[in-house]
Design brief:
This protein is α+β, with helices and mostly antiparallel strands. It has one domain: Gcn5-related N-acetyltransferase (GNAT) (Aminopeptidase, 3-Layer(aba) Sandwich), CATH 3.40.630.30. It contains four helices and five strands, in the order E-H-H-E-E-E-H-E-H.
């Protein structure tokens, strides 16, 4: 299948299992991500994103990416991934471009992201640069059962 046959579009709903499969293949799915009631948090993630993009081969979602933003000042692109069998065809770049174009069309010009190790050349080709003098930080939870500890 040619990369031109892959549809990239902004979506507001997803098939939960498709997102789970993409997360698993990217190594982002951890034990405990499955909730007793299913994966309804995936619906909340899509709905809460400023923009969610899916890449489709026919009806099958084979890639995704999303942007989070306040809708006024800045945005962050995250969760860009493509199924392994479809990588290397420019699909990930198209996902990032659709997200970036959507954000820019809404007047949001400051767009950042956190690049996984080894992906910097990919993002550099798309116009992103390392922010010298800045350090990525994440809150460390002392008690994994409580977000407030």
């Amino acid at each position: 299948m040619d990369a031109d046959d892959i549809a990239i579009r902004i979506i507001t709903r997803v098939e939960r299992e498709a997102v789970k499969a993409l997360y698993q293949q990217a190594g982002w799915w951890e034990a405990g991500d499955e909730t007793p009631g299913g994966n309804s948090w995936i619906d909340d993630m899509v709905r809460g994103s400023f923009c969610f993009v899916g890449a489709f081969s026919g009806d099958r979602m084979i890639g995704m990416g999303r942007a989070i933003s306040d809708g006024a000042s800045d945005a962050y692109i995250q969760d860009v991934t493509v199924q392994e069998e479809f990588r290397g065809r420019g699909i990930g770049a198209r996902i990032v471009r659709v997200l970036s174009e959507h954000l820019c069309s809404r007047g949001i010009g400051w767009i950042g992201l956190v690049a996984e190790p080894g992906t910097q050349p990919f993002y550099r080709r798309l116009g992103f640069e390392v922010m010298e003098g800045h350090v990525l930080m994440r809150r460390h939870e002392k008690n994994p059962d409580s977000c407030l500890s």
